[in-house]
Backbone:
């Protein structure tokens, strides 16, 4: 796949009507998967703890060995498991609502070059908190969203429909954005933590 740069768009959008209704979390949990972070992909500023389920940022580089899978530009990390078929759901706990990106990426996404930042190429998608602003990014196109200020975010990847939906998880799961996402190859949960003091934790499905 070739990367094709596009101009940025910052038009604010409301939640699409087709995902505006809350869903029962118990139904989503039936599709729950157990995830861990892949240390081979972790940028050298990413610290993985709690049995590879928590990712945070260090001011100093770690001593991870060099490998082709490792991100070298942005403090990003992938999950160790990717999906090419079926429906899969996971949840992530945020330490704060600042300077964190949660998304998905094909395994073939660039790890080393200028297009290795989540959402800034045609091989990845993410929702990104920058201060109080929440944006959705794909192929370098930004869509500013209404920010529900979630403490826990759920992601439903439906490989059969080619769609990924992001939820603000509370008493129910409230969808706040959806991407069209064809599963042409394995799709991996992807994360970007770009400020010291911020962290993301993969939640147990219960």
Residues:
């Amino acid at each position: 796949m070739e990367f094709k740069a596009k101009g940025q768009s910052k038009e604010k959008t409301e939640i699409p009507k087709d995902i505006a209704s809350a869903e029962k979390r118990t139904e989503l949990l039936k599709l729950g998967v157990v995830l861990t972070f892949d240390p081979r992909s972790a940028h050298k500023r990413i610290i993985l703890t709690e049995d590879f389920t928590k990712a945070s940022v260090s001011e100093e580089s770690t001593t991870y060995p060099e490998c082709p899978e490792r991100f070298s530009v942005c403090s990003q990390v992938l999950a160790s498991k990717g999906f090419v078929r079926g429906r899969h759901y996971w949840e992530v706990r945020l330490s704060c609502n600042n300077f964190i990106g949660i998304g998905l990426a094909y395994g073939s996404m660039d790890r080393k070059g200028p297009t290795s930042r989540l959402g800034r190429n045609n091989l990845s998608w993410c929702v990104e908190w920058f201060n109080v602003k929440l944006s959705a990014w794909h192929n370098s196109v930004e869509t500013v969203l209404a920010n529900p200020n979630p403490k826990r975010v759920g992601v439903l990847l439906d490989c059969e429909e080619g769609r990924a939906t992001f939820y603000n998880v509370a008493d129910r799961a409230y969808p706040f954005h959806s991407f069209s996402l064809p599963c042409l190859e394995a799709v991996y949960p992807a994360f970007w933590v770009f400020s010291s003091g911020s962290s993301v934790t993969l939640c147990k499905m219960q």
About this structure: Helices lie at 25-29. The domain at 12-202 is CATH 2.60.120.920 (Jelly Rolls).
